[in-house]
Write a structure and sequence with these properties.
The chain is of the alpha/beta class. The protein contains 29 helices and 19 strands. The two termini are about 35 Å apart. It binds (2S,3S)-3-hydroxy-2-methylbutanoyl-COA. The site of (2S,3S)-3-hydroxy-2-methylbutanoyl-COA has 25 residues, from strand 5 and helix 3.
Length: about 700
């Protein structure tokens, strides 16, 4: 029997304990072990029931995702679960930690289910571009009804033991050791001569309007297809017997396995976990952080302070005046009230954070004891240097000095202190207590343990931390500036901001670039353009000024009620602002441009080509370590559709050769903007992909 399953006997109960750390994924060896374990129990004289239980921190985290895309190996999970269900013995599942995907499907194949109160169950396959492929779409509705089953499958969310009991998945919720609980429950069932209860033989619940459910789910999933196909799989249960339903589920599963969305989402799953693991920081001990200082209590400073409080850290927030301090305290209180309302914290935690852990100060000396300080003041180098000079004066030796700048030169800031090794960038995204992305900007002199501390803090704050080198805009904003410039070029040449937004929203972005600009505030881009012009634009660059005219007229987007769109009817009822088109026509005439039409495909192609090309430069220059670092940055900070895996995963799937040839085509008319990235040229020349570059790490 495989070493992944331990067989033991407790009276007339045979126990199959699963040991495949870290999360008991249902690898081939685990499946084989379970099959052999069932055979052994059925052949073991005197055994009346079998208990399946997980060791370590979970029952099962589902099928082994590392086996996806490879030739499937016997025994297949659906057959194994049918085998378990068909056993003449009673089979009991005792669940703790998570029971996800194929793991919950194993439990649904058992005749009885017991769980500890902290257990969580779910069918998250849709998060991998798939659906439950081992009977979940056929068995779960028979226990919970169609609506509850579809809610679990199409959202992929985890539900607690109490809720799982309420909707019929779990029979008993009991605290204690899962193995002991399971044995006692199995013994009780045997003593009561409880019947085997194969779920597959239970009657089907009342059907629903399948087409309506399919369409509603598709709309809700904004371009992702697997949630809607869960509806068709459940519907198939009503077209024939259980075996026919299982066959239909399997077919849909295999069809989804072939999709680009599956490739994109599994890439996102593993990249999300790999992006924080940097070979150069392996074994580097981070400094301990319990007390954080934040300089500046504006939207960003208050958000950063909130994130630190929510992570259980003490916070000293510094503002220049008591009034400004009060305003900052108010912002943080508002953020925490929101967390309380969403049930993220309870009332005790809320008051502890606001009344004890947070302190608003107006004197730098109050920061003498912090372990790390994050500066979030006005984006001007002189202001930054003045702040860091004060921090250098007051902070204790070993304290880490971080800047939340979104583009200024961290090397220059570090060099202005006496301790450049203790300086790095920690670039949060607004709202900082909500957005998952954190760019950890490692400057030339940043010490390894300081970089490691940046990542440790990111983990503590629940962030996806990405290592970035020093350049204008680091990873995310540098790439953003390029694809935004590409959009502006298309506008000069004939496209409208509204066509561009529509094309990119159809591609899967939650919001197009111009709606995003209105949300963030047009004054930010305006300040950036003014700064770049002051630094001197390359004469070969095409200049675009219509957006400046919009800002000069006082239109900064949502915060002024008008920008690219008019928000008179509220953010959700935005309508195109016709003044923008007039400004654009004036600029075209001034530049002697005859506008032409752009199809949505061409808009998307050019936009993505610009994004990928700049991303390849960012990786090629080492600003981003690996292509997956860029993918995670765009996914968690810039609204890139997760089911496409990120711009460089999308490029691999779409084909680098075609993309490079398009870029070379665009470069015919604008060789400066469309200079192909050397890395992209090299990969195409070598017949390689960005994934190959990821593997090189
Ligand atoms: N397969 C393989 N490896 C897995 C895995 C899995 N299912 N789940 C986790 N890991 C690895 C992960 O990559 C990481 O590795 C380590 O375990 C710890 O994970 C037929 C087809 C379970 C909630 O989608 O959601 O069943 O980085 O860092 O934050 O219907 O992992 O250390 O090398 O995430 O505590 C459905 C996926 C599969 C669940 C734990 N199941 N996993 O979170 O730790 S499809 C899922 C998770 C399926 C059937 C279908 C989470 C977790 P490394 P971690 P965590």
């Amino acid at each position: 029997m495989s070493d992944k399953i331990a067989y033991s006997r407790h009276g007339d109960i045979a126990v199959l304990s699963v040991r495949n750390p870290p999360v008991n994924a249902l690898s081939q060896a685990v499946r084989q072990g379970l099959w052999d374990g069932m055979d052994r129990a059925e052949a073991d004289t005197g055994v009346r029931a079998v208990l399946i239980v997980g060791e370590g921190r979970a029952f099962f985290a589902g099928a082994d995702i590392t086996e996806f895309g490879k030739p499937p190996l016997d025994p297949f999970l659906p057959e194994l679960i049918n085998r378990i269900e068909a056993s003449p013995l009673l089979v009991v599942a005792s669940m703790h930690g998570v029971s996800l995907g194929g793991g919950l499907e194993v439990a649904l194949g058992c005749h009885y289910r017991i769980a500890v109160p902290s257990a969580r169950v779910g069918l998250p396959e849709v998060h991998l571009g798939l659906l439950p492929g081992a009977g979940g779409t056929q068995r779960l509705p028979r226990l919970t009804g169609v609506e509850a089953a579809l809610d679990v499958m199409t959202t992929g969310r985890q539900i607690g033991a109490a809720q799982a009991h309420k909707i019929g998945i779990v029979d008993v919720v009991q605290d204690g050791d899962p193995t002991q609980n399971g044995i006692a429950y199995a013994e009780k069932l045997v003593a009561e001569d409880a019947p085997r209860r194969p779920v597959s033989e239970m009657p089907l619940p009342t059907p629903i309007d399948w087409d309506a459910a399919f369409d509603a789910t598709l709309t809700r999933s904004k371009g992702q297809i697997s949630p809607a196909w869960c509806v068709r799989a459940v519907q198939a249960a009503y077209d024939g017997d259980f075996a026919a339903g299982l066959k239909a589920e399997r077919q849909i599963f295999f069809d989804l396995m072939q999709t680009d969305q599956r490739k994109g989402m599994i890439h996102a799953f593993f990249s999300e976990r790999a992006v924080g693991n940097l070979p150069e920081l392996k074994g580097v001990e981070p400094r301990s952080i319990a007390h954080v200082g934040v300089i500046g209590g504006g939207t960003m400073g208050a958000g950063i302070a909130t994130a630190a409080l929510l992570a259980g850290l003490r916070v000293h927030l510094l503002e220049m005046t008591p009034e400004a301090g009060e305003a900052a305290h108010g912002r943080i209180a508002g953020n925490l009230a929101g967390a309380l309302k969403r049930g993220k914290i309870n009332a005790d935690q809320h008051s502890t954070m606001l009344d004890q852990a947070l302190q608003v100060v107006t004197n730098y000396d109050a920061l003498s004891d912090v372990d790390l300080v994050i500066e979030a003041v006005f984006e001007e180098m002189a202001v930054k240097k003045a702040v860091f000079a004060e921090l250098d004066r007051v902070c204790k030796p070993g304290a880490i000095l971080a800047s939340n700048t979104s583009y200024l030169n961290i090397n220059e800031i570090a060099a202005s202190t006496s301790r450049p090794g203790d300086v790095l960038g920690l670039h949060f995204f607004s709202p900082a207590h909500v957005m998952k992305l954190l760019e950890v900007v490692v400057a030339d002199q940043t010490a390894p343990d300081v970089a490691a501390t940046g990542f440790a803090l990111g983990k503590a704050l629940g962030k996806i931390s990405v290592r970035a080198g020093v350049c204008d805009g680091f990873i995310g904003n540098r790439i953003l500036s390029t694809y935004r410039t590409c959009a502006d070029h298309m506008i000069l040449d004939g496209a409208s901001p509204f066509e561009i937004d529509a094309a990119l929203e159809a591609f899967g972005f939650a919001m197009g670039p111009f709606a995003v600009a209105d949300l963030a505030g047009l004054d930010i881009g305006w300040a950036g353009r003014k700064r770049k012009r002051a630094e001197g634009l390359d004469p070969r660059a095409r200049d675009v000024t219509y957006a400046d005219k919009l800002c000069e007229a006082g239109h900064f987007g949502q915060k002024t009620g008008k920008g690219y769109y008019d928000y008179a009817g509220g953010p959700k009822a935005r309508v195109p602002n016709p003044d923008v088109l007039a400004l654009i026509e004036t600029e075209r005439a001034a530049q002697g441009i005859t506008p032409r039409t752009f199809t949505a495909d061409e808009i998307t192609r050019r936009y993505m080509a610009a994004m990928v090309n700049e991303a390849a430069k960012v990786v090629g220059e080492g600003i981003a370590r690996r292509p997956l670092d860029v993918d995670m940055t765009l996914l968690f900070g810039y609204g890139f559709p997760r089911y496409r895996g990120g711009p460089l995963k999308w490029a691999d799937i779409d084909g680098l050769t075609g993309l490079l040839s398009d870029i070379r085509g665009y470069a015919q008319t604008d060789p400066y903007f469309w200079a192909p990235a050397p890395l992209l040229c090299q990969l195409v020349a070598d017949g390689q992909t960005f994934d190959d570059a990821n593997k090189k790490g």
